[in-house]
């Protein structure tokens, strides 16, 4: 029975899929490390504000806001640089370059004497994160088969969430200077493994006119060794189809012109990408993680912040894992509909509980906010979070995919920065209940858009428009 399972086309350990899985696992090492950097900061900020701070003096609230927002600014920078470099130097070189700013982050953390070190370090970490969110989904979509593409691409967010939980634990349990000494090993190992085992995608090599190298890359990722004639013939038919889609009769790559960005399919892609980005950001999923302590304090919860953080971190991993398992079974649309609908209801429920906490004594029910947030984060991660980058790549036509995806992710990262700054102002001006109800209403509208207009991309060939 086990041998028959390994022969299934959607089994990740199928002989044809092993190199694709191996490559995905390698590049996700930097995702885990990036997640550690995000999660580690949350419990560490309390240490930095105390009299026992490892810096020269405790940091202020204003300085904390700069440390938080530096990641978003770096992410936008990373998106832009990745978008500019990806088509020029290829995915392998871009993957290698991402290790550099992330290594610098941990060196700056270790040697930090003032908050300026941390602000610069977080900015550099954002550059790596911005690169991850663009390069990884595009690279995975170009090396993977259609029936496992969703599973492999969604491992990006699963890996980041695993890293975030590890970061929570390390920041809570270990001394400040010990963490960077341990974690700096991750980007170094990642760099070495990418250098040794990752090749540029066949699609990129064809676009550069390197047909022989593209064929070798294709065989490498499809794990075709050439021991059987029929496998070689099948591989060549598939490879020639890819080549024909990207080049003319003389094997000269097609040029992208301005009108390619204004086709019917491109405009449809822009519209749905806009809805996906709005749903992802106005669902307040990322904001709730960043302002978790303040939200719990306003909701009436009396649970220990560190315990709550680790619970939510574990739920993030569970949600991302469930999404990873289900993407190529139920498809993207079903998960996005369930995710947005569930998040809208959770936000509304959280708002109502917080509203009535100010009227009635809910001391005995202080666990409810953590439970509602756990449901919210779980449902958000099975679709809105993990599916974001999978769908973003699959929305756009082949010729403009890299450029359009890059622009969409830059807009998404910019919106993160805006929402992080607006959300506390809304909580102060409107109150937490009204802020959550507003997010719930926007998410509910996006739910209707997904229900009626989102096109299913499960099993879609990356050569289709």
From TrEMBL:
Pfam families membership: Sugar_tr
Cellular component GO terms held in the UniProt record: plasma membrane
Keywords assigned by UniProt, alphabetized: Cell membrane, Membrane, Sugar transport, Transmembrane, Transmembrane helix, Transport
Membrane topology category: Multi-pass membrane protein
Signal peptide, first to last residue: none
Residue ranges annotated for the Major facilitator superfamily (MFS) profile domain, each copy included: 23-458
Transmembrane spans: 21-41, 64-86, 93-112, 118-140, 152-170, 176-198, 269-289, 309-327, 334-353, 365-391, 403-423, 435-454
Molecular functions per Gene Ontology: sugar transmembrane transporter activity
InterPro entries, alphabetized: MFS_dom (IPR020846), MFS_ERD6/Tret1-like (IPR044775), MFS_sugar_transport-like (IPR005828), MFS_trans_sf (IPR036259), MFS_Trehalose_Transporter (IPR050549), Sugar_transporter_CS (IPR005829)
Name of the protein this chain belongs to: GH11269
Record gene name: Dgri\GH11269
């Amino acid at each position: 029975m086990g041998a028959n399972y390994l022969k299934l086309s959607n089994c990740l350990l199928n002989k044809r899929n092993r190199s694709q899985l191996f490559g995905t696992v390698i590049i996700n090492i930097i995702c885990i490390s990036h997640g550690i950097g995000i999660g580690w900061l949350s419990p560490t900020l309390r240490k930095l504000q105390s009299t026992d701070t490892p810096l020269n003096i405790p940091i202020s609230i204003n300085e904390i806001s700069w440390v938080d927002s530096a990641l978003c600014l770096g992410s936008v920078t990373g998106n832009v640089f990745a978008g500019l470099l990806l088509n020029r130097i290829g995915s392998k070189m871009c993957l290698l370059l991402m290790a550099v700013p992330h290594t610098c982050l941990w060196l700056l953390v270790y040697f930090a004497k003032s908050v300026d070190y941390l602000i610069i370090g977080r900015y550099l970490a954002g550059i790596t994160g911005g690169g991850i969110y663009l390069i990884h989904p595009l690279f995975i979509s170009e090396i993977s088969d259609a029936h496992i593409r969703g599973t492999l691409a969604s491992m990006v967010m699963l890996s980041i969430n695993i890293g975030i939980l590890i970061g929570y634990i390390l920041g809570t349990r270990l001394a400040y200077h010990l963490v960077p000494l341990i974690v700096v090993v991750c980007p170094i190992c990642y760099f070495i493994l990418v250098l040794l085992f990752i090749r540029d995608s066949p699609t990129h090599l064809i676009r550069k006119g390197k047909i022989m190298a593209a064929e070798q890359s294709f065989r490498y990722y499809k794990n075709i060794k050439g021991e059987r004639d029929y496998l070689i013939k099948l591989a060549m038919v598939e490879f020639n189809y890819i080549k024909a889609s990207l080049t003319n009769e003389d094997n000269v790559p097609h040029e992208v012109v301005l009108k390619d960005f204004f086709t019917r399919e491109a405009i449809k892609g822009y519209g749905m990408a806009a809805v996906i980005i709005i749903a992802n950001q106005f669902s307040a999923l990322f904001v709730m993680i960043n302002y978790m302590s303040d939200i719990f304090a306003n909701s009436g919860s009396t649970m220990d912040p560190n315990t709550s953080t680790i619970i939510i971190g574990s739920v993030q991993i569970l949600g991302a894992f469930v999404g990873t398992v289900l993407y190529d079974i139920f498809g993207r649309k079903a998960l996005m509909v369930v995710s947005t609908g569930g998040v809208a209801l959770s936000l509304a429920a959280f708002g109502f509980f917080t509203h009535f906490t100010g009227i009635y004594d809910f001391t005995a029910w202080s666990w409810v906010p953590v439970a509602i947030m756990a449901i919210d984060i779980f449902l958000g991660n099975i679709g809105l979070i993990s599916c974001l980058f999978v769908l973003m790549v699959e929305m756009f036509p082949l010729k403009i995919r890299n450029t359009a995806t890059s622009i969409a992710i830059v807009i998404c990262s910019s919106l993160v920065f805006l929402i992080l700054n607006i959300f506390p102002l809304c909580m102060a001006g409107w109150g937490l209940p009204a802020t959550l109800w507003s997010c719930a209403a926007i998410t509910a509208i996006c739910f209707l858009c997904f229900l009626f207009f989102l096109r299913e991309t499960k099993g879609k060939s990356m050569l289709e428009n």
